[in-house]
Structure formats: C-alpha cells, structure tokens
Amino acid sequence: MPAMYCHRCDQMAAIRMKEHRLQLCKEHYLEWFIQQTQAYIQKFHMFNRSDKVLVAVSGGKDSLSLWDVLWRLNYQAEGMYIHLGIDSEDHYSDASEAYCRQFAEERGLTLHVVNVRERYGKSVPEFAHMKKWGKERPCAVCGVAKRHIMNQAAIDHGCNVLTTAHNLDDEAALLMLNTMNWHVELLRRQSPILEASGGLPRKVKPFCRFYERETAAYALLRGIDYVEEECPHATGSTQLYYKGILNQMEHEHSGYKLNFYTNFWNAREKLFGQKTVKDAGDGNACPNCGQPTTADGLCSFCRMVNSSQA
Ligand code: SF4
Ligand code: ZN
Predict the structure, then answer these.
(1) H or E segment at 302?
(2) Does the beta carbon of 221 sit less than 6 angstroms from any atom of ligand 1?
(3) Which residues crowd ion ligand 2, with CB under 5 Å?
(4) Ligand 1 atom closest to Cα of 237?
(5) Is residue 234 part of a domain?
(6) For residue 121, what is the domain's CATH number?
(7) pLDDT at 123
(8) With a 6 A CB cut-off, is 140 part of the ligand 1 pocket?
(9) Number of domains into which the chain is organized
(10) Does the CB atom of residue 233 touch ligand 1 within 6 A?
C-alpha cells in the first residue's frame, strides 16, 4: 500500500476520509474538525458567544469531544452529567461520571451533576421496573427522564441553549427508524436545531454531520480520556440494528449516510413546509414542573415520579 500523506503538509496522514476525499495528519485533522464544527454552528445559527450553552455529557467520546471543541472555540459552555443509576459490572454510571469530572477539572470547566436516585428517589432502571412503567429495556423511561432533567438543568442554570453530541451515525439511524415506521411527527421534528419554545432552551446538534469514526478520531488524537463501554442496555437496540444496515450500505457506497441524512433536510422542508422547528408545540404547562406537555395534567416525568411515591 502506498504511503499516505496529509493533503495539507508533508506529514504522514493520521486519518483518511473517503467520503470527503481527504486525508490529514494529526495536527491538520484536529484543526479541520474544529473548523467544521464552527462552520455547522454558523450555518444553522445554533448559537453565538453571547449565548450560555449547556453541553449534555455522558462521559463518552462524542460528548466530551464536543465540550472540548466548544471550549477551544471560546463559547460559554457548561457541562451537565445525569447519573442514571446504571450499575453494570463496570459500574457504568459511576465510571462515566468520573470521566466527566476529570475532564472538567483538567480544563477548569463547570460541570453540573444530577443523580437521578438522589434527586427523584429511584434510579432510571428502578423507575423502569415499576409495574406501570415496566419495560424490558429502561430506554423509554431513560429518554423521558433525560429530556426532563436536561431541560430543567438548562432553566436552573440560565442556559438558553442545550447541546447534545449526536453524530451522523446516530442521526441517520434515527432517520431510518422513523422512516421505516412512518413516525411522521418525529420526522417533522428531526432537525439539527429545535427553536426555543414554551420556556425550553434551543436544542442543537453541532456534530450531526460528523461520522462516528471522525468524532472517535478527534477524541483519540486529542488524548481525551473517555468511557469506552456502551451503556449495557444499548445492546440489541433497534437503533444499533439500523446502524448496522447503514454501515453495510456505507461500505458499498462511500458517503451514503451523509447523503441520506443531509438530503432529508430539504425533503423535510418540502414535506412539512417548515424551515424551522420549535421544540414544544402548543402544549399545556405541567402543574408540577411547569414544562410543556401534551397531557392535560402532569407531564409524563412528574406522573412517573408521583406514582413511584404512591
Ligand atoms: Fe438510557 Fe437506554 Fe441509552 Fe442506556 S441505552 S443510556 S438506558 S437510553
Ligand atoms: Zn412535570
């Protein structure tokens, strides 16, 4: 195999990105990755330096890389870790929290931590095991809890923007899942940016056009320590199934995932006639927490917590 050189200097390339027809050395890759992130932030008007941004961090490569990049770009970015109480053999939640704390300490950044069991009486798997909410997998309960807690944290800490580190692989798999099931409302709302509404912060995904291997390469080349294990409940999930199919398609047609996802943006606008999407519709305010809900009374999170105390 011929030696692989960086397209911007005479160093050996550290990464080759077939879909972009680009190969770069470590230094130029780190520079390219930060420039690309800034370009997405500007293209979608996600936020600027006067906004206060809350970064949802899990201790994994994507979210810690996102926080690192925003910090290097001089955005006002605070971190937020939710301890879900997932106690696998590896003590997944404890280990993930430790990585987030170490990351924040090394850079002198502010990290907010919410421990679900300490704050709300039960961990996410314990809520999921309750009769009414029982599911084989705690992911549905986890989604409700994370959404509520992240919104609340943004409100409590005066952050008008909430950012997550979903990458292209995540977004393309979600798009395929929503399409295969014709989840029309979820397709309407699948956007890199959800405008603030109903007192909730704006939600943005600055990494949505990066392949998972690109975020992994950033973390690795930058020397970020992150939790390598996946959440034990992710095994066998539908999203992983669609990721597998998309990987196969990408293997045969380089750039497939990127086209599938980015072409959807135009299609979504044509299908739904909306350029911008608001986070919450015209829902009611939950009488307990004040967050918008489509239910008449309490929101699903408050109902779950209340019924655990009954
Ligand atoms: Fe939560 Fe399921 Fe994701 Fe684990 S895999 S963090 S339980 S949504
Ligand atoms: Zn509520």
Answers:
(1) helix 300-309
(2) no
(3) 286, 288-289, 299, 302
(4) 5
(5) yes
(6) 3.40.50.620
(7) 93
(8) no
(9) 1
(10) yes
Residue 155: is its pLDDT beyond 90? yes
The pLDDT tens digits of the residues spanning 288-304 come to 999 989 888 999 999 99
* Token pair of 74 as six digits: 């001089």
Given ligand 1 and candidates 142, 170, 229, 238, which is best to mutate, with the most ligand atoms within 8 Å of its CB? 142
State the DSSP H helix or E strand holding residue 292, giving kind and residue range, or none if neither. strand 292-293
Of 92, 73, 300, 271, nearest to 188 by C-alpha is: 271
Report CA-CA distances (Å) from 261 to 208, 254, 266, 294. 9, 14, 10, 28
Check if 146 has its Cβ closer than 6 Å to any atom of ligand 1. Answer: no
What's the predicted TM-score (pTM) here?
Answer: 0.94
**In sequence order, which residues have a C-beta less than 8 Å from that of residue 308 and are 6 or more positions away?**
120, 121, 122, 126, 127, 130
Please indicate, yes or no, if residue 291 is contained in any of the structural domains. yes
Question: Whose CA is closest to 215, among 171, 178, 177, 245?
Answer: 171
Q: Is residue 155 part of a domain?
A: yes
Is there a domain that residue 6 lies in? no
User: CA-CA distance, 245 to 173, in Å (whole number)?
Assistant: 9
Q: Domain range for residue 303?
A: 45-309
Nearest CA to ligand 1 atom 6: 231
